[in-house]
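Bumping with the actual sequence this time:
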Amino acid sequence: MLLSIVARPARAQTETTLYQFTCQNGNGCFPNAGVALDKKGNLYGTTSAGGAHYGGTVFKLTPSGTLTTLYSFCSATACADGESPYGGVVLDSKGNLYGTTYDGGNDYNVGTVFMLTPSGTLTTLHTFCSVGAFCSDGYGLQAGVVLDKEGNLYGMTQGSGDCAFCGVVFKLTQSRTFTILYTFTGGTDGSYPTAGVVLDKEGNLYGTTIYGGASNFGTVFKVAPSGTETVLHSFDSNGEDGFWPTGNVALDKKGNVYGTTTFGGQLGVGTVFEVTASGTESIFHSFAAGADGFHPVAGLVFDKKGNLYGTTEYGGSSDFGTVFELTPDGVETILHSFVLNGTDGYYPLYAALSVDKSGNVYGTTQEGGSGSADCSSQYGGCGVVFKIVP
């Protein structure tokens, strides 16, 4: 069912900028991904640039807003430890952090998977373009990894071999055994997967591709533990469907898949879609631009009540992006419109949100804040970490 595109007025909530990155004195800058939460309310994330060696950082941010740089990339010769972590991190039960870098690692400079201990010791678990034929293990990691109960990691690359838009879905065990679960062909099975994957209880992986599918406007797919891929939906630019999904999907308790498309829908400026477990797709929300926001690039996250949260790159009261909430029956509320006031962030891009047990929403913007002379963004500002209290 195509639901109303009219946004509900915002309820009373408070948005706070917890931290503003500066790119100075070894500080990281330009956070491309969201943050992970531990049980004490500390936030963990990455910056794609800055740090002591200018290769990006992994950081910890306390609830009171005190930031600690846990690791600065490019500390090894020729950035063998990795460079430019575009994806976020995940935590295990011991407090170890796992993530990816887009560059660095070896002579091919196409990224790594890493583990970082609470004390700040980094171990490179896998360097890409190091298994099998030329880069058959993939390259180009825009997103991070997910962790199963056994400690295995799963992720996705943008390209593989000589095919810049094919990519792979991979598994990396605790013993550092790297396995390619599926290699995209660039055709109807999907092409150019830029987001990460999500894991269900049976070990199936779900994700999106920007291109490929029946009409070459992107797909939603499922990869079984055996490596069998199923295209759950192929998008079409027919004015009704969305197209070009770029963010992570979210799974509800029934196995339905929710995500965003950057374009398409009633007005062509993006959608939130639902794909049932049986593969039936419907548009859950069509964005209307203006105050409603438009061009959602990041994925979605559920809270414990079944509400969905996400961001739009543009739109809102000042056209610098929004944070929105969608109830289970499809009613949208704009929780925050970003403004250019010197402290707020703007243009939330690839970073998915996080929600704590109390319903507080956390995220990052790649630009905005007070910034510094080292920031080369159009309006100044090296990015922020924000919190929204309903």
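The tokens above came from a reply further down the thread. The chain is about 0% helix and 35% strand.
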